[in-house]
């Protein structure tokens, strides 16, 4: 099943389920709200079978971030073998984790307006795991069963702010800078463990190209680990970290420039496409 | 004005305002909910003047965490001159920030049940700033005006988990381990800049003793800084960091033991009092 949150002409949003090249819209504001309903799968199936349900051709829909209001977003750093090599670190024994707020998320095709806030805007393509159950102290098997599905995120990072202190948070917490989507694909349809290609390109030039097989801690590992210390709930997000090829790790380093379009793709899910607006300063 | 969230016999909670040695209860579930109402000051005043408002003697009230559901909690590390000296670091140019989830908070007199999760449980007394306005890219003056008040927090840290990776989050994100309260004192009544004593004791032995004058970045500095990257809203919390005297910085290091009572006091606000339950292991 493929789920999305669709922006309506009046600015509100509705959750939708894809079937037969169309989005069937539900009477629920977003996938965040939908997946908190224990009967969400039945509701989605009913929408497909309801001849009066409002529907849209895929190409006519304006997609919003599928999960506008996760209660928790936990991000993992240093989790791809190739990215770890790039930073010169050892393969970690434990996942490196930090948190994001819901306001950090933005739409899958949103323009990202950096303005003069950062001169070192970097990209981090990430597989995002969508939680489907209430989980606390989950075993790996329970974590696996508690994964609702997967989506794409780009943990866009302001490296100048990130480098100001030991904690990465302030480089990764800018409102409306982490695009997510375009859709959520349920866990029965794709398998990151079997391997999904992860690609980032800038104006068509591929800068990250890896595969979810390269993950040190896989989706279920991370969900189980996080659930040791905090309750996870339907609609929460775990970002699994980024592969090699970020601007920080290149020689010379490379940052996003005004007008460039970042495309973030995960096989079997889809692509984010985000143009950046950055005020350049002298010497940039 | 002094505000609290009071636990009712049926398990629900209500916001309350203190007057004349009594808590006057409002028809709102918590201070989190109360302060999102633009008319909250008028409501609180009305409760004091309402002869039919349910009231409790201070000693009869069971206080819950005053802010059970902040949308955002941002914490600052390394922010007291004496604590920075203890860690051997330089005085920072920028605040070191990380985030917490609302589930991490617990009641001001709650028992904190560590179980076997950590063998290195440490204390961090902190002044917590309660946001009163919507703030984004606030100047220092706007930040100052946007502070609703102050409360006490203890950013109890599992140092074994905190040391697993470069990011502190997982040592500080355990559900129900950060006591907050007992009350919120509005900003017109106390001045951390003028100096408030901050004290932590374990079973009566003082382990932290400092003053909010020692803060490197004061409350308004932190609020203004955080608002550069994310929207702050009424009821959000900023934890301002801890002074010297934590267990990690002592020689030999000292961790909380099963049954010990941690008392965290800030002058003019009040005290948290939390007993710890910790499963000790051999060699501990």
TrEMBL record, chains A, B:
Q: Keywords assigned by UniProt?
A: Metal-binding
Checking InterPro entries in the record gives:
FAH, Fumarylacetoacetase-like_C, Fumarylacetoacetase_C_sf
- Swiss-Prot/TrEMBL GO biological process terms: carboxylic acid metabolic process
Q: Matching Gene3D superfamilies, A to Z? A: Fumarylacetoacetase-like, C-terminal domain
Q: Name one Pfam family in it.
A: FAA_hydrolase
Q: Which residues form a coiled coil?
A: none
Q: Which residues form the Fumarylacetoacetase-like C-terminal domain?
A: 72-276
Q: Which GO terms describe its molecular function?
A: isomerase activity; metal ion binding
Belongs to which family?
Answer: Belongs to the FAH family.
**Protein name as it appears in the record:** 2-keto-4-pentenoate hydratase/2-oxohepta-3-ene-1,7-dioic acid hydratase in catechol pathway
Source organism: Alpinimonas psychrophila
